Amino acid sequence: MKNKFAKGVLTGALAATCVFLLLGAAGIFWLQGRISTGGFGSGGSLVDSSVRAKINELTNVIDEYYYEDVDAQDLADGLYKGLFASLEDPYSAYYTEEEYEEMMISASAQYYGIGAVLQQDPDTMQVQIVRVYQKTPAQKAGLKAGDVVVQVEDIDARSMELSELVTHIRGEENSSVHLTVSRKGADGYLDFHVKRGKVDVPTVDSQMLADGIGLIVVAEFGDATAKDFKQAVEGLKAQGMDKLIVDLRDNPGGMMDSVTEILDYILPEGLIVYTEDKYGRRQEVSSDAQHYLDLPMAVLINGNSASCSEIFAGAVRDYGYGTLIGTTTYGKGVVQTVRRLTDKSAIKLTTAKYFTPKGENIHGTGIDPDIKLKYKYSGKKEKEYDYMKDNQVRRAVKELRQME
Fold this sequence. Notes:
Layout: E1 17-22, H1 26-36, H2 49-65, H3 72-85, E2 93-95, H4 97-108, E3 110-113, E4 116-120, E5 127-132, H5 137-141, E6 148-152, E7 155-156, H6 162-169, E8 176-182, E9 190-195, E10 197-200, E11 204-208, E12 213-218, H7 225-238, E13 243-247, E14 253-255, H8 256-266, E15 270-276, E16 282-287, E17 297-301, H9 308-318, E18 323-326, E19 334-340, E20 346-355, E21 371-372, H10 391-401
Parallel strand pairs: 1-14, 1-19, 12-13, 13-17, 17-18, 18-21
Antiparallel strand pairs: 2-20, 3-10, 4-5, 5-6, 6-7, 6-8, 8-9, 11-12, 15-16, 15-20, 19-20
């Protein structure tokens, strides 16, 4: 689906993720506490004397026989990353200080890079460009949505988590990065040298359509998304909006606080979402009675609408507060907690399942639309995107008109 507005991952660091941010020293004490109390099911410490002895033995072998010098910190970081890799959970990871800072750049939606939106399949690790922002280095270089990234410099794009890969795509302003991509219909691989530049990524954009119908496109749920969403609603109301389309297609998620703040603004008083950890501990997030958006609404979803987008769609569906149009969502019903450790590294760990207001966990199944409709665009791709030639938008307009 081509769209003039940005939707998707800010070069991938929050792909298909809905996260809590828990910063500060408490994180490392939490992790150490689980180790020291034998909380891993074995009745003893994870890093006991035999494990320490084996680590030392392996380190000595590498130090003596590996054909190049190795940095001790790199080996230590590899141990930490391996601990999380052993979970076989694509959403849990260890981040060095530098990697954590890159992740926070994604949340701020401002960085020096190329201006492309990437997504990674958690099973195949294939990385695909799903959006190219207007007037960015990526667009100027000729990269297109649908391109599959094969290599970044000399790095196999499938060899690492997307959040790590994007650290090699971003860099200093006016420096260049080499990307090798495969493109449907092209013979062989295509090579691009892209000059990095400052990219400011809006996560919310809006416009008025016909008959008092407003459209708000949410690219992902970042730090400023809730504020920008509310401003978009008020701006459209000032133009006469009395019906609303919210476009969550290709929105991979983001920050849970962001989506729940928007839902609090939209929905009447009541439960928005709740989470449960493996001990059955439940945390609820509810909408208060201070404000709700009393407008007929349609929500556009597709297979790339994930995590926080599914929290949005699930709450709207359970309250009967809008019509879901499109195709079944991604199906990610777990949430991650990001904890900053005392040495400024960080971890992202899947800590709970989330449930819609009516108690459904959609992990692995997704949310079905009320009106199933595959995307088709009848406009010319080389021209500015015309939403009224987007069949899913047109269907949403039709449904809302019938509510008059």
